[in-house]
Amino acid sequence: QVQLVESGGGLVQAGGSLRLSCAASGRTFSTYAMGWFRQAPGKERDFVACITWSGSGTDYADSVKGRFTISRDNAKNTVSLQMNNLKPEDTGVYYCAAGQRFHFSRSCGSASSDYDVWGQGTQVTVSS
Questions:
Q1: pLDDT over 90 for what percent of the chain?
Q2: pLDDT per residue as tens digits for the range 62-95
Q3: 31: closest CA among 7, 3, 53?
Q4: How far is CA 52 from CA 39, 67, 81, 89, 105, in A?
Q5: For residue 105, what pLDDT is reported?
Q6: CA distances from 83 to 9, 36, 96 (A)
Q7: CB 21 within 8 A of CB 34
Q8: CA torsion angle for 80, 84, 87, 93 (degrees, to 10)?
Q9: Can you tell me the mean pLDDT for 8-33?
Q10: Spatial separation of the C-alpha atoms in residues 52 and 2, rounded to whole Å
């Protein structure tokens, strides 16, 4: 089972950009679909983006389509989330997640229950 550590969060003005990274330990990283979720204060954890085990497929929440891009490097055991044109409503704790449910699948999951392993989260704050 992998372990996940996120980095790259911070404070940014609206319209700015941030790049989140998630480093995974373990030899089985490429067997996991990877996802990013976020949780705003007082709200539930919401899906942001996911990428298939091979990197050939991605999915995004409607609220971030065209602004965020998820990618992965299986050789380096990392997954990244490039966030552009950030808005105050993007503020929250961002979590990286790994799930084997969609191994060898052309799709990745958008539900929290699709993921088995979670990172500790990184805070993203977008000021207006």
A1: 91
A2: 999 999 999 999 999 999 999 999 999 999 999 9
A3: 53
A4: 22, 19, 14, 26, 7
A5: 85
A6: 11, 12, 14
A7: no
A8: 10
A9: 95
A10: 16
